[in-house]
Amino acid sequence: MSTLIVRPSGPLEGEIPIGGAKNSVLKLMAATVLAEGTFVLRNVPRIADVAWMGDLLTHMGLTVEVGDHALTITTPADVTPEAPYELVERMRASIVVLGPLLARHGEAHVALPGGDDFGPRPIDMHLKALEELGAEVTFEHGFVHARAAQLTGTRLLLEFPSVGATENALMAAVLAKGTTVIDNAAREAELADLASFLNHMGARIRGAGSSTITVEGVETLHPVDHTVVADRIEAATYLAAVGAAGGEVILRDAVPAHMTMLVQKLGEMGVRCSPDGDGLWAMARHRLRSVDVSTLPYPGLATDYKPLLVAMLTVADGVGIVTENLFAGRWRYVDDLVRMGADIRTESHHAVVRGVPRLSGAPVRAPDIRAGAALAVAGLAAEGETAIADAHHIDRGYEDFVGKLRGVGADVERRD
Ligand code: UD1
Predict the structure, then answer these.
(1) Phi-psi region of 281 (alpha: psi -120 to 50; beta: other; left: phi over 0)
(2) Residue in 366, 360, 334 with CA at minimum distance from that of residue 2
(3) 164 CB within 6 A, ligand 1
(4) How far is the CA of 206 from the centre of ligand 1 (A)?
(5) Is the model's pLDDT at 65 over the cut of 90?
(6) How far apart are alpha carbons 236 and 255 in whole angstroms?
(7) In Å, what is the CA distance from 321 to each residue of 87, 220, 310, 375?
(8) Dihedral angle at the C-alpha atoms of 336, 339, 341, 347, nearest 10 degrees?
(9) What are phi and psi of 271, to 5 degrees?
(10) Ligand 1 centroid from CA 161, angstroms
């Protein structure tokens, strides 16, 4: 178990490299099941979730070789169409193997994921979409079993633009017979990356990145070499660090076009951002102003940004009302922020954050990836030492979190 020690820092100055998106690479890895042969993925972050998805692919009979920010994945003619509980429990995103397994192998046996720290996260929309494409879905011994001799294209209307359900439906539809239309589809940048990967493989997808995706099924797909899109949530984390600690940084390889709403919100708070060559420049010189925040599906403000925004609001001037519209219970880090002197009251989907001049470092615990990172952001603006236990959660989504922060002058270290 490792602990992250954060001391008051700033102004932060310099450059931070932004890696490939966790929420894209995991799905691209799942999509390699769709074609026999050898794939290369580049700009792959060195994070725990990628290693776990590699374990899952290996369990299914694929070969995964790890290179320098690259993965070489070889898919054999036959795979074991099964995702066991130990792996799905560790990482809920494993559920996205359901669509590709079903499409290419006609069956998939995937352990049902449990709830997690964000409360229950059902997969009913994933399953409904697959059933509408012609799969027969049953449950037994904690597993979902899906079977279909041949999937057939149809019109799918998602009740909510769920990222995972859109991805599973998309990966199933690429090999289905005929045309599939996915309406009210998720529009995330990572989803567009997945569609572009699938199109390079020979799929025929139009409209990815918009709320209507049209897929004309093809008979076979082939392996490709692909570079993973930049991680907008990693970039948002370092923007929050600059907001909390002050300073001026360049986020190399960040894609501002994928973060428009966040950049606008940060501008209202007093963090100036603008595109800079191959990245994003950001500067904060004064105490931030409070704003209201409401999470929404892309291109709205991502729920993953919320803990970072809350951390910034704790030391901003004024009162901010934060509304969570995606995951009911995503407030677990708030108690720890309060222990650090923040003035936050939560009520169901809302939090009222009254900015205080300074936080006070305290021992806290990272409950998940983004909340762990948010506690570190708060620690930069706190007097004394903030010791974040369970820092391994941060490793699930961030490569070299400590090194990147230290590189711009933050006083952060890891104690194992
Ligand atoms: C993905 C991201 C996660 C992000 C989330 C929302 C990955 C690995 N994770 O998660 O970081 O916070 O998108 O942007 O990419 N829902 C249902 N039934 C379903 C599916 C979803 O009710 O079958 C609900 C969920 O409970 C939640 C909402 O829909 O309230 C959005 O979930 P979804 O977009 O599916 O999130 P994930 O794909 O799990």
Answers:
(1) beta
(2) 366
(3) yes
(4) 22
(5) yes
(6) 11
(7) 37, 50, 9, 19
(8) 60
(9) -100, 115
(10) 9
Ligand 1 neighbourhood includes 125 CB (under 6 angstroms): yes
Burial (CB count <10 Å: 0-12, 13-18, 19+), residue 166 = buried
The alpha carbon of 259 and the centre of ligand 1 are apart by a number of angstroms equal to 19
pLDDT for 289: 98
Cβ of 304 closer than 6 Å to ligand 1, yes or no, is: yes
Q: Which of 373, 400, 408 is nearest to 388 (CA)?
A: 373
Walk across the sheet containing 350-354 and list its strands.
293-294, 319-323, 350-354, 343-347
CA-based R_g, the chain, Å: 21
Q: Is the pLDDT of residue 116 over 80?
A: no
Mean pLDDT calculated for residue range 142-150: 94
Please choose from 92, 162, 393 the residue to mutate so as to test ligand 1's pocket, defined by most ligand atoms within 8 A of CB: 162
Determine which residue's CA is closest to atom 9 belonging to ligand 1. 23
Which residue among 163, 188, 308 is best mutated to probe the pocket of ligand 1, counting the most ligand atoms within 8 A of its Cβ?
163
Closest CA to 273 of 299, 300, 297, 247: 247
CA distance 3 to 46: 19
Name the residue with tokens 């108690």: 335
- Residue 128's H or E segment, with its range, is helix 124-132
Mean predicted confidence (pLDDT) in 32-59: 97
Catalytic site positions: 116
Give pLDDT, residue 328.
Answer: 72
CB 327 less than 6 A from any atom of ligand 1: yes
Best substitution site from 187, 261, 262, 326 to test ligand 1's pocket, by max atoms within 8 Å of Cβ? Answer: 326
Query: What per-residue confidence (pLDDT) applies to 122?
Result: 86
CA of 163 to the centre of ligand 1 (A): 6
Q: Is the pLDDT of residue 121 over 90?
A: no
User: Which atom of ligand 1 lies at the shortest distance from residue 298's CA?
Assistant: 14
How much is the pLDDT for 329?
67
- pTM for this entry: 0.97
Q: In DSSP terms, which residues pair with 93 in a beta bridge? A: none
